[in-house]
Design a protein that fits this description.
With 374 residues, the protein is of the alpha+beta class. Among the domains are: 45-135, Thrombin, subunit H (Beta Barrel); 147-274 and 296-311, Trypsin-like serine proteases (Thrombin, subunit H). The chain is built from 5 helices and 19 strands.
Length: 374
């Protein structure tokens, strides 16, 4: 408890001393991520854009997803339904996936050969089992895009404790996750948001589905996932594996439900990947005709950029983001002055005057590790 109180005190100090910043925002509409910072796609090599076209529907449906093997990606089952029109996976006319093309030419877009929707999925966001897989037969995803799936052991022994230890009511909170999406748009830029983890007892009370709940790091700041951006990857970092080649980064979830009305009285929900590792394994095993070993390739992946590293983490005020420890967010694409102003509308001084969130995370991780040893 002492470590939690110390963390709460530090967070309170930060909320007072941080310079104000205003991050660019986009009004939320269906399947759109509100706010977010435009980022380099190559820094999120696991990210995919799943594009489905259904019979009789003129506009394509765009979802996010994550590469989990060189032939497989995971996304939301809702991408294969149009509940309002009574359409389901049997009405899919075409299916494509786009992913970062590392020759510097942007995104590669290819046709998907097969897809597998959870047999109990209904396409209704209020129902469970919101998960699906897409597969290449002839083509392949880049090896350096394969993200490791979070396991039940990691979820129960590490992340669950972090959610409780790092949660602070009505104050700035440590982000535990980063999520990225294309705003449900064919030509939308990739944007990312950091989210704090909601303790399981609060999340369970909000909805009984198998999900992670996330919310904005600052209680008065409304930036975050709103109305979906279905399938957007929720990335978490296991502090016990930070020294690994893949930085300890894990796919913890995929976006399923956004916040109602984009306010902070509701949480963003993500299908908990740890609860579906067996389904993923069994589905792939049945398809390839031999036992599939989960995370075998992902453990060999080398990531050059870590969005959850201390130096890359922003801080938050009630108006938006403040850059990472280096004074600027190295992940940001474009003119940083467009996304950061002080209370008078002038360019904010981001060079100092407050604790960086990386410092807070270091202190929080130390407190967590000390608690673990007791």
């Amino acid at each position: 408890m002492k470590s939690k109180k110390l963390l709460s005190a530090i967070l309170a100090m930060t909320a007072v001393s941080s310079p104000l910043a205003l991050a660019s925002t986009t009004n939320g509409t269906e399947q759109v991520t509100t706010g977010g910072v435009e980022v380099l796609e190559s820094n999120y090599p696991w990210q995919v854009k799943v594009i489905t076209t259904m019979n009789g529907v003129e506009e394509a449906k765009v979802c996010g997803g994550a590469i989990i093997d060189t032939q497989w990606a995971v996304t939301s089952a809702q991408c294969f339904f149009d509940v309002s029109k009574g359409l389901d996976k049997n009405d899919i006319e075409s299916l494509q996936v786009s992913f970062p093309d590392y020759d510097g030419e942007g995104l590669a877009t290819l046709n998907i050969d097969k897809f597998f929707v959870h047999s109990s999925a209904t396409g209704n966001p209020a129902d469970a089992n919101d998960i699906a897989l897409v597969k290449f037969n002839e083509s392949s995803f880049p090896m350096n895009g394969v993200i490791q799936l979070m396991t039940a052991v990691e979820d129960e022994n590490v992340l669950t404790q972090q959610k409780s230890d790092f949660w602070v009511e009505n104050q700035e909170r440590l982000p535990l996750f980063v999520t990225t999406g294309y705003q449900g748009s064919l030509d939308g830029a990739l944007k990312r948001d950091y989210l704090s983890g909601v303790p399981n007892d609060k999340c369970d009370g909000y909805n009984t589905r198998l999900t992670h709940c996330g919310t904005t790091p600052h209680p008065e700041y409304t930036q975050g996932m709103c109305y979906g951006d279905l399938g957007a990857p929720l990335i978490w970092k296991n502090p016990n594996n930070a020294g690994d080649n893949n930085k300890g980064l894990r796919l913890a979830g995929i976006a399923s439900i956004g916040k109602d009305n984009c306010d902070n009285n509701n949480y963003s929900e993500f299908t908990n990947i740890a609860d579906y590792v067996d389904w993923i394994k069994n589905t792939i095993t049945a398809e390839i005709g031999e036992e599939y070993v989960v995370n075998q390739l992902a453990q060999m992946t080398v990531f050059s950029y870590d969005p959850l590293a201390d130096e890359n983490m922003p801080s938050y005020t009630n108006k938006g983001e403040v850059g990472g420890n280096s004074g600027e967010d190295p992940d940001f694409v474009g003119d940083d002055d467009d996304n950061a102003t002080d209370g008078n509308g002038d360019s904010g001084d981001k060079s100092g005057g407050s604790f960086g969130l990386g410092v807070l995370i270091a202190l929080g991780t130390t407190a967590y590790n000390r608690r673990k040893k007791k």
